[in-house]
């Protein structure tokens, strides 16, 4: 019996093992998040959100997100807006710091005339918008502080306006 099939098999398995070691995950780990958020902040209560505009997918957004703190004041939440095609593949991802008014209508909706679905979510906390919403179950508003402390009633007009603008941009993009 010849030894060359055994040797060839061993070389093939060695190359496959080396190839598997070089494959990188497209998800962020806890270590990545800790590295992104140092213990000092520019102002009391300062926090960061992943921030990108029309990234190709969640990985590209998180990978190239600017490492800056949200402005002090009304911006107290992080949002994620995810547009997917009819197969669930990402078309665009937009993440940013937002005010409470922009978080009052999380959820998913179909984008007319494009076959796309748009899901939005909001959260409170440091770089809490690491994942994107993919369905109604993950399109939520998660808050760590009570929202009923204010006697004012907020209207969701800014979020509605933002969604309408995104729908128009996406629907006209296919006509060029």
Automatic annotation (TrEMBL):
Localization per Swiss-Prot or TrEMBL: Cell membrane
UniProt key word Translocase: no
Signal peptide: 1-25
Major subcellular site: membrane
Example GO molecular function: acetylcholine receptor inhibitor activity
Gene Ontology terms: biological process: positive regulation of canonical Wnt signaling pathway
GO annotations of cellular component type: plasma membrane; side of membrane
Superkingdom, taxonomy of origin: Eukaryota
One of the Pfam families matching this protein, by short name: UPAR_LY6_2
Protein name: LY6/PLAUR domain containing 6
Originating species: Cyclopterus lumpus (Lumpsucker)
């Amino acid at each position: 019996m010849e030894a060359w099939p055994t040797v060839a098999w061993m070389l093939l398995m060695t190359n496959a093992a080396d190839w598997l070691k070089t494959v990188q995950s497209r998800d962020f780990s806890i270590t990545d998040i800790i590295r992104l958020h140092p213990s000092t902040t520019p102002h009391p209560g300062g926090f960061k959100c992943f921030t990108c505009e029309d990234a190709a997918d969640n990985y590209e957004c998180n990978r190239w997100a600017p490492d800056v703190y949200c402005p002090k004041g009304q911006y107290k939440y992080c949002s994620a807006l995810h547009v997917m095609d009819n197969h669930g593949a990402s078309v665009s991802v937009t993440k940013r710091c937002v005010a409470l008014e922009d978080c009052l209508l999380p959820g998913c909706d179909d984008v007319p005339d494009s076959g796309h679905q748009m899901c939005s979510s909001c959260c409170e906390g440091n770089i809490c918008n690491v994942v994107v919403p993919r369905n109604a179950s993950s399109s939520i508003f998660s808050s760590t502080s009570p929202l009923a402390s204010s006697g004012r009633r907020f209207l969701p007009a800014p979020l509605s306006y933002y969604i309408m603008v995104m729908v128009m941009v996406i629907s006209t993009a296919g006509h060029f």
